[in-house]
Amino acid sequence: MAVLAAAQLLDELMGRHRNTNPNEKLKKPNWEDPEYCKYYMVKFCPHDLFVNTRADLGVCSKVHDDEVKALFEKAEPSYKKAQHVEEFLRFCRHMINDVERKIMKGKQRLELMNSKPEGPPMTQAQSEKNQEQVQLLSEKISSLVQEAEEAGTRGDVEQAQGLMKLCDRLKEEKEQLLKQQENSHWSMTAELAAAQEKQMEVCPVCGAFLIVGDAQQRIDDHLSGKQHVGYFKLRQAYEEMNEAREKEQQEKERKRREERDRERSSRGGGLGSDRRDRERMERDRERDRDRSDRGDRDKDKDKDRERHRSSRDDKSSRDERNSREEKNSREEKNNRDEKGRHEERDRDRERERERERDRDRELGSHGKSPHQPTKRGTFEIKANPEDQEQQTDELQRLRGDIE
Hints:
Elements: H1 2-14, H2 38-42, H3 66-74, H4 79-114, H5 124-154, H6 157-196, E1 200-202, E2 209-211, H7 216-223, H8 226-267, H9 270-365, H10 388-402
Family: Belongs to the Luc7 family.
Organism: Diatraea saccharalis (sugarcane borer)
Region (Disordered): 242-403
């Protein structure tokens, strides 16, 4: 910082090109170079406002050149020039916000000081008695802590815990006594300040504390101080530049409207051009409305398509599930039919056996010798020549029944 201050001092005394050779060609200054201070070119550098004050920002690391500042002011409006102005306003706004927070905290502090303290202040005897109680409690707490440590070393945990609980209660009583003493001291201080009848106020510009009704000389000294003058200049510059920028924007808007009206009058003039403009605007609105309606219809179509697709998927899944259920039911039915056929076949065989047994019993009851099956589908016929023909017919009839 000291080196920069010395360099700036030499530049002011001997010029910026003090270290250049006599035969060296000098470079023309350009306000767009990054070595020059943007804030100084726009209005002023805030680092120069609060030198050797509590709000000191230090030495600016950029170059302050009046010639470059003049070039900046003469330059045509451009994006970079507007950017420099915007950065200066942003920095001023940041510093103003900081001092506004300082002013608000100062007012809160004054409100707290002017508020009435709780309870009457303690007398000298009460204060001495309070200090004695605090000292006794401190000695008792230290002795209890020592006894608890001894009990812990002996292994008596319950006694140590009880002593520590008693110690905690004594600490709470000590804190209450200290709080009472502090409140009494604060109330005495407030009463002393009220007795002196020196009411304070906060400066609305720089946030410094001022005595209400102070001597005019001290008030003038404050108003002419660097900190107050610096913040006043900062606020004034910010307000002026904001108003100028708003006026410039309004002027641009007015010129734009005039140019638009001039173009309308040059195209057709009079009411006809206005009517054509309104018709064209109406057509544009209708076109936008149709486009939005078309977009809504497309969205509805997409939703319907998605709904149909989902319904087809659901229908196909239902058909597949129904076909699977029908197939399972058919298989179960076929299994039941097959089982029923097997049972029916078994019952037919059992009935056939019953009929054969009944027939054998009938033949035996008529005095005829029963016949025994020797092979499948054949019977052995006894050697009675008279009944051979009758038995042959009976055998054929039995074969027909079996088949």
